[in-house]
Structure formats: C-alpha cells, structure tokens
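Per reviewer request, we include the raw input and output of the structure prediction for the construct analysed in the revised manuscript.
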Amino acid sequence: MFGLVGLELLVMSSADLPAMARPTFGDCAKAVEREGYLILEMDARGSNYDIDARKGGREWDLQADRNCRILDARPD
C-alpha cells in the first residue's frame, strides 16, 4: 500500500491562466484582405465585425467574428 504524504493539489481558476491574445482590429482587417477583399468600411458590433468590402468587381456585406473568421458574406 502506498501512502501520500505532503501531497498538495494545485487548483487554478480561469483568472490565474494567462490571457489568450485576441487578434486586433487591424489583424482582422489584414485577414479579410488576405481573402481577396478590399475593405471599404469596418465596424465593431457586439462580438462581431460588420464589414463593407469589394471583391471581384462587386460590393459585399461581410460579418466576421473577433477571431477574424468570416461568418457571412453576401453580395450588396
């Protein structure tokens, strides 16, 4: 039989964890441009970005999350 003497259990709360770096507004703009869009206007709305952009001679309404993923792309 094994005995555990002096064992401490380390419990971390989420406040103890290092903050994960979220992409900045500029980082997201660059990510959208890498997809081939020319950004005309970009606004932060709640937890998403609303983006007016141009691609392939058309204007697009885009919605991206704060991690720069395009959630919705509709021709304007």
